[in-house]
Amino acid sequence: MGAKLFVVVPCYNEEAVLGETSKRMLGLFSKMEMGGLITPDSRIVFVDDGSRDKTWSIISELAESEERISGIKLAHNAGHQNALLGGLMTIKDECDCAVSVDADLQDDINVIPEMVKKFSDGCDIVYGVRNSRESDTFFKRSTALAFYKLIGAMGVETVYNHADFRLMSRRALGALAEFPEQNLFLRGIVPTIGYKTDSVYYDRAERFAGESKYPLKKMLSFAFDGITSFSVKPIRLIWSLGLVIAALAIIAAVYVLISKLTGHVTSGWSSLMISIWFLGGVQLLSVGLIGEYVGKVYKETKQRPRYIIETYKK
User: Which tens digits make up the pLDDT trace of 194-224?
Assistant: First the structure.
């Protein structure tokens, strides 16, 4: 017997791609149903993350005309991670397993049947992993590699070349619901759940319409959030840097004292200014980084809802 599969698709201003996306997804669902992989009551769930274009009206029309399509409308733009989580948490008790994928379908949905097969074999989490980044520009490829190396060095467990294209069982979704944090970084949270996991591999395609919702500025912010949400190593690095500077200060003090005693005192305006600027910069950087952690604690203590669902069209 097939699995009851829900595919959750977060959308923000995706009116240009929804028609083609729904067409491809419905075609895939028909093939999987005919092959006995999924049940007839499996669903495609589009989550509108407070879009400003016609995204919700298109989703509504699709939900009314096609019984395998449902729509969730958030009351306000909550961000990609919150929209994805909102969709998963809404349907977690209705399905056997759920796959999350972006609306642009750059991630190859043709590997979803392989994901479902691995779920049927006992896997609770199946990651969609890119074979390579040859289709990316040199800059994006280099920064992505630097991101994974940096976040790994900071002690954050992630899956290399994996974004948010993954399958999770109902049991895994229930475990995900136990994570109450406001500062979401699902790529770091999901690997900490445990359970049996596996991966499928695919080649990422070009976006067939619309514009990317993750420009460089958002990517950098996302990377920084991932590090500061999961690791305290940056604060420990500041402590280590403080020790190094203190040691250098002691050496400098000894040098100054010896110079004074031997009468080799010279005007040190340049070295003094460099020292002041250097120490001032380190202090401001340290205070800013610690402030980032304090800000995250502040957000967590408020415990505001991460998303608010306005409409759920089944």
Answer: 899 999 998 877 655 555 555 556 666 666 6
pTM, two decimal places: 0.73
The number of residues in the chain equals 314
Q: Where are the alpha helices (DSSP H) in the chain?
A: 18-34, 55-65, 80-91, 112-120, 138-153, 170-176, 186-189, 216-230, 233-262, 269-302
d(CA 247, CA 300): 37
Three-state SS for 258?
helix
Give the CA dihedral 33, 7, 60, 23, nearest 10 degrees.
Answer: -50
Nearest to 241 by CA among 206, 313, 289: 289
CB 140 within 8 A of CB 214: no
Residues 6+ apart with CB under 8 A from 200: 111, 114, 115, 118, 126, 127, 128, 129
Question: pLDDT digits over 122-133, tens only?
Answer: 999 999 998 876
The angle subtended at Cα 217 by Cα 212 and Cα 223, nearest 5°, is 100
**Token pair for 61:** 């029309």
- Cα dist from 107 to 2, 10, 179, 255, 264, whole Å: 23, 13, 26, 60, 68
